[in-house]
């Protein structure tokens, strides 16, 4: 490692410093350099606090937490494909099929998103934002495997420019960029984001789909009153069902949740309050039960669609979520409530997580404002009895 650092700093770095022939690209060089190792810069005077973790490494923890969902998603893509064909193949055949379909989506997401980040960094002469390390992985996991690559590239570019750069880059955005990409695809190309798009049914010569094949997700079945066709609770919990690439397996997502909470990156307050909100709204709708969707057990909502994935990886976005402890509870609770409400009462959009989180992203600063204001009022009230009156 020491030899690598010396080689970079003595042979490569001078070309990117002031007066060097590649000085125009010094921001791009800094991005790659700090990704490899933390520079030995220290303050020369005064007290300071040093920490081994910075934003890049924080983002890296999130990417690690996403790996179980990614790997399971790759296998599930192959599993659903061969189920649709009625073929019984090995685990590795299923995984390989999913890998060669999902990996290009991941590559396209990172290449296009980071290209935009680097261009804006050079134009504005600021450091390359590390936030896209996470967004670049989130975007492929929340889209159907059948999404065309050009569409993934277009949605990624839209999300980075409109969702981040127009607000000033990472840390300044008000909406989750990955969900903005999903929303762009949903409203610009709805035919590619709903219906029988969740299973890759590309057929080779001599292959055909099994009779009565349906690629509907559990939420689509409920929206069309096909409750009897729902997969079992175990299947929905494990994730062996049609859906977005990384959203089907609650087990894999929970592994990611444990990684985020133990490393201090993800907010347990938000995760638990989202779950509480979903259960609360599901229980309230059970009281009415005017249709079969309202009558399902509330915990079904937690293991269907993108609820678990949104609660763990989207709602906990440290930039767009509420920042105060009480605000996180309110923010997460409302996300859970609105998600179930949109799912059940909006027949045109059976998945409500995306819209619920984007809506609460907008209201997160307002929630924090009123939480802080209420705290200040309580403190002022406590001060009044102790006020000392000075007698003349």
Quick overview of this protein structure:
The protein has helices at 2-16, 26-36, 55-85, 91-124, 132-141, 149-163, 177-188, 218-223, 233-238, 250-262, 268-288, 292-295, 307-314, 325-345, 353-383. The protein is mainly alpha-helical and 392 residues long. The longest helix has 34 residues, at 91-124.
Strand-helix topology:
Elements: H1 2-16, H2 26-36, H3 55-85, H4 91-124, H5 132-141, H6 149-163, H7 177-188, H8 218-223, H9 233-238, H10 250-262, H11 268-288, H12 292-295, H13 307-314, H14 325-345, H15 353-383
Could you describe the 3D structure shown?
- It is a single chain.
- The chain has helices at 2-16, 26-36, 55-85, 91-124, 132-141, 149-163, 177-188, 218-223, 233-238, 250-262, 268-288, 292-295, 307-314, 325-345, 353-383.
- Helix 4 runs antiparallel to helix 5 (132-141).
- With 392 residues, the chain is mainly α.
- 41% of the residues are buried.
- The protein has 15 helices and no strands.
The quaternary organization reads as: single chain
- CA-CA gap between termini: 74 Å
Largest sheet: none
- The number of helical segments is 15
Q: Quote the beta fraction.
A: under 5%
What helical percentage do the residues reach?
55-70%
Q: List the uncertain runs.
A: none
Determine Rg (CA atoms, Å): 24 Å
Structural class: mainly alpha
What is the overall silhouette?
globular
Elements, N to C (H/E) = HHHHHHHHHHHHHHH
Work out the number of β strands. Answer: 0
Mean pLDDT, as a whole number? 87
